[in-house]
Amino acid sequence: MQDDHRLSTSDLEKKYGTSIDKGLSSARAAEILARDGPNCLTPPKATPEIVKFLKQMIGGFSILLWIGAGFSWISFGIQLAQGVDSAFDNLYLGVVLALVVILTGIFAYYQEAKSTNIMASFSKMIPQQALVLRDAEKKELPADQLVVGDIVEIKGGDRIPADIRLIFTQGCKVDNSSLTGESEPQSRSCDFTHENPLETKNIAFYSTTCVEGTATGIVINTGDRTIIGRIASLASGVGNEKTPIAIEIEHFVYLVAGVAISIGVLFFIISVSMRYKILDSIIFLIGIIVANVPEGLLATVTVSLSLTAKRMAKKNCLVKNLEAVETLGSTSIICSDKTGTLTQNRMTVAHLWFDNQIYSADTSEDQTTQPFDQSSATWTALSKIVTLCNRAEFRPGQENLPIMKRVVVGDASETALLKFSEVILGDVMSIRAQNKKVAEIPFNSTNKFQLSIHETDDPQDKRFLLVMKGAPERILERCSTIMINGKEEPLDSEKAEAFQTAYMELGGMGERVLGFCHLYLPENEFPDTFQFDTDSMNFPTSNLCFVGLLSMIDPPRSTVPDAVSKCRSAGIKVIMVTGDHPITAKAIAKSVGIISATSETVEDIAKRLNIPVEQVNRREATAAVVNGMELKDMSSEQLDEILLNHSEIVFARTSPQQKLIIVEGCQRQGAVVAVTGDGVNDSPALKKADIGIAMGIAGSDAAKNAADMVLLDDNFASIVTGVEEGRLIFDNLKKTIAYTLTKNIAELCPFLIYIIASIPMPIGTITILFIDLGTDIIPSVALAYEKAESDIMNRRPRNKRKDRLVNEQLAIYSYLQIGIMQSVGAFVTYFTVYAEQGFLPLTLLGVRVNWESNAINDFEDSYGQQWTKYQRTYLQWTGYTAFFVSITIQQVADLIIRKTRRNSIFRQGLFRNKVIWVGIFSQIGIALILTYGLGHVTALNFTPLRFQYWFVAVPFAILIWVYDEIRKLLIRRYPGSWWDKNMYY
Amino acid sequence: MLSLPVGHEEKVQDPDREKDEPKANMGSKSWAELAGEMKIFLWNPEERTCLGRTAKSWGLILLFYFIFYTCLAGMFAFCLYAMLLTLSPYTPRFRDRVSPPGVMIRPYLNGFTIAFNVSQPSTWQPYVDSMHHFLAAYDDKVQEEKNIECVPGQYFIQGGYDSVEKKACQFKRSLLQNCSGIEDPTFGFSKGQPCILLKMNRIIGYRPGAGAPVSVDCKVQKGNESHLRSVDFYPGNGTFDLMYYPYYGKFTHVNYTSPLVAMHFTDVQRNHLVPIQCRLNGKGIINDLNSDRFLGRIIFTLSIGK
């Protein structure tokens, strides 16, 4: 074990060749970095790639296909022993099935690797930064660039970037729970307190979090050499949890596999009892399994999910795991922070009061001018005070940036005033330079004002100008006159009353109000040589002239009201949780629509009816503003009552601990809760929530670690985008699955009819694989690009337990209605092909044994012509091709109808999703290539098909479309009806 | 199985979270619970539902599907009916898959190996019976009664509407001479010189040979050619006379009897499996297609024992 914790600071400096004041030099740091490698943990040994790959090979449907392949080879062996000519067909089929499993396995493996990479790249987009002293300069560096000997600074909320020997601390506490399991934060100091480095207080460990305070320390270990890096068990202890969407897909696999096996076994029994040979029955079983299994679907689903994760990243939602995408879609309550999420997180001047009138200022994010009336002389005076009585300054070198984006040194209010005056007056700095400051009293909490004395910019005017700003009532106390339209008038009670009214009104809007006054000091008493002394205050600070009020607020982001109303129509309750004052919180809630314009709180009703609050019927109030103090005394039943009875809730003056209580309360209502947070203290709430959302800009490392999702732009509207995407992917997966399942019936029916009616085989097993893995793949991915149906944000959130991905309606509608239609259409084509070649439909019934007999080479058709076996087989392949083409044509209709589940296709727009058309063209293109390009490769069982057969199934394709439009129409017309319940999936 | 990237470690360690997750894990329920649920699903006495539906609900859904499938069946029937209306009852629309003609032999019992011992009549009697049975339709009497005599050497083309019954030309059994079974009712089997009949598949409207009669030849297929020393062909040196073509289909050409060529294997190596390929030769005839061993040719094995 190291003994760094025992060494003195100077010994440490010597040991690591560093300096506490200057840090390492960049060159030295680079050398050490080259020696030690980057400061990050070697990822835990993941499941070996080969194991992952093999898992893909045997998981899900693959096992069914392996069984099919196994059966094929067994029957090949038996037939070969019996000397049957067609034995090799079974060998090939087995090989093809094995190939399918291997290829889809490779694809799924590749997709999984890719989506893991995407997720990994997302986590790289939120890198940990560390504040390092190098070359005697403080620098923000990515934490993995740290080397031993670096001097780093840590503040509350940071993750400790490496093992650090502390050399300076101030109230520093760390959360070691990830290392030791201690849940209480541990205090840290510079003192050597224990022999054991794990126990001593002067070392902070990599990957733990600093909860509060600040500290400076020397990096003593990096990367795998840190304490946590050495604890191998921790690194490998990453468990695998099944995500809801994976559970849904597993459910779906069970369902389809169940159907496949039951139908397969059922027909195995039927065919055996119909005196088919066991071997034949086994071959039928293979066909039924292959027809039932949607071979390409699982890969398609992975592709769709990764597409969505990427799309969300583009919209500033970084999903840390794909689970979050879907959970977000089922969110029913969002508990949102106010500052920074709903608001712009910067004070902005919102209102002005002068000349007895309130003016509104522009508070949008990208203001360049202010529209209110600036002609009054009072405004000129006021603007001068605002400009001069201000200590905030722009950082130099930002002249090209828009004013609102420039960085300011100064507190929030002063920054707001500086930017406000910069927007209106232009170069504030030069105005200040022209009005040289001669004395100044900065703001403090006892006198509650700020004062400065300036020379005027008019060379003729030798007077000094005293300007003052501060709490309005304090300012007014010091005034004896008030400026109205540029003229000083005595401050009588009437004018004081007007001031009070304006002050109350602005304060009532939750805004921070400042009063402004000035006084031109008489030239005779204060000549330009006068020495102002701010300690003795040798100048007047009363009987000043009141000029006006300015009020500031952290204004809502312009996109938020829209997002909130979207949430509202999507059945998502938005609850504001803030540490702010109730009045400010309520004002913001009102302006963004969390509290709608018409709803009232209990207090509002009491005020309107002029009765005590206790007498108000609480049920009448739709909105509630709950103070943190009240919340503290509430029982959980009372909280439940509030959450249940009020649709619009604001929690003000709450502590992060109370956030957790609120989340738990919401979850007791059975809601799926999304919570935003940025601070360390939010971590419990973020973890507790169904989906924790951390802020990418303002968020601490701890919050980002605890969250499932990171908002890169801190914007509430991005959450709503995320919700929309989450709902969309769920819908689109439903559509993809519905599309894929439909044709399974059209592939299955031929087998069943073949067994029962003994007609020549309508479709081959290999042909089926060409549909499942050829023509249908691109269209089913294309459905992931489908835009939302217009009602996506007008629905109630999904009920996790009831609304399954694949529900009864979806399966039944796809299997028993559209699927059957497709089968009928394909059979019409099949019978047409045979009839036009001489085999009328009725002659086909029951011919199977003779038809398939190799010995019969003068098989008579309906017209008396005689066919050899090969001629019949070739005709059979033509039948396969026709059946295949018909399914493809009808799948085009199926693809189009699956674009929507409720709305008319025409409302959705046929051409809005271009990828669908890529899908349709690819589908038809692949079918053309298979039919005409590969029609001469006998092993594939395709033949060049007469052109007209492409159109036989078209009426059925149209029928599918029309029928589905009618279905949707009836669903829209009669919501809640029998039809709606049975036909909407 | 598809497994999606999963949550980070904190989640696993948080026991509260585990509890909240709906567990759709099939294995987590005990068998007794599953059986109980299944029973309720099959028949729920409280809500009086079977398989999750009440009697009324079942009635409605069954009625719906009855109507739905009736309509579909109707549409299916209508489409087929409309399609059949466009077809001629006498001639199939396309004949590209059935031509050029395939070939079959008689007797045909259980495959293409004709094996018998001359000294054991029971081994060849079934072949002889089969031949007699097959040639019954070619009895001279039957032919004279039903069919007309045609002009040899030219196609017998009959005009008129498709629906008019067509005349068929006589093919008398006696034309087969030694293989007719008239003089030798055992078709040479009793002497170890079996007769085998070869017929060409019927194809409506097909004119084999394009003006010149199609002829037949036989040789050993991949073997010692000396095993097959002599074959006689009847009638007319093994040709199919043009007058039997074209064929007009079974509805109008009712009494049509396919012309035959008899192959009399007069000298075949005894006690050997002799694979023989007999081929049609003529213009438009294909007899060397690898994938179809019955197109314009036929391969069979003779095994004549003592």
TrEMBL record, chain A:
GO terms for biological process: intracellular potassium ion homeostasis; intracellular sodium ion homeostasis; potassium ion import across plasma membrane; proton transmembrane transport; sodium ion export across plasma membrane. Its main location: membrane. InterPro entries: ATPase_P-typ_cation-transptr_C (IPR006068), ATPase_P-typ_cation-transptr_N (IPR004014), ATPase_P-typ_cyto_dom_N (IPR023299), ATPase_P-typ_P_site (IPR018303), ATPase_P-typ_TM_dom_sf (IPR023298), ATPase_P-typ_transduc_dom_A_sf (IPR008250), ATPase_P-type_domA (IPR059000), Cation_transp_ATPase_P-type (IPR050510). The keyword Membrane applies. The keyword Transmembrane helix applies. The chain crosses the membrane at residues 58-79, 91-110, 252-276, 282-305, 737-757, 763-785, 810-833, 877-896, 916-935, 947-963. Residues 3-77 form the Cation-transporting P-type ATPase N-terminal domain. It comes from Malurus cyaneus samueli. It is a multi-pass membrane protein. One of its GO terms (molecular function) is ATP hydrolysis activity. It is found in: Cell membrane; Membrane. This is Sodium/potassium-transporting ATPase subunit alpha. The lineage of its organism: Eukaryota, Metazoa, Chordata, Craniata, Vertebrata. PROSITE patterns: ATPASE_E1_E2. GO terms for cellular component: plasma membrane. Belongs to the cation transport ATPase (P-type) (TC 3.A.3) family. Type IIC subfamily. Keywords: ATP-binding, Hydrogen ion transport, Ion transport, Magnesium, Membrane, Metal-binding, Nucleotide-binding, Phosphoprotein, Potassium, Potassium transport, Translocase, Transmembrane, Transmembrane helix, Transport.
From TrEMBL, chain B:
It holds the Pfam family Na_K-ATPase. GO terms for biological process: potassium ion transport; proton transmembrane transport; regulation of DNA-templated transcription; sodium ion transport. Its main location: membrane. It is a single-pass type II membrane protein. It is found in: Membrane. Residues 7-23 have a biased composition (Basic and acidic residues). InterPro entries: Na/K_ATPase_sub_beta (IPR000402), Na/K_ATPase_sub_beta_sf (IPR038702). This is Sodium/potassium-transporting ATPase subunit beta. It comes from Malurus cyaneus samueli. The lineage of its organism: Eukaryota, Metazoa, Chordata, Craniata, Vertebrata.
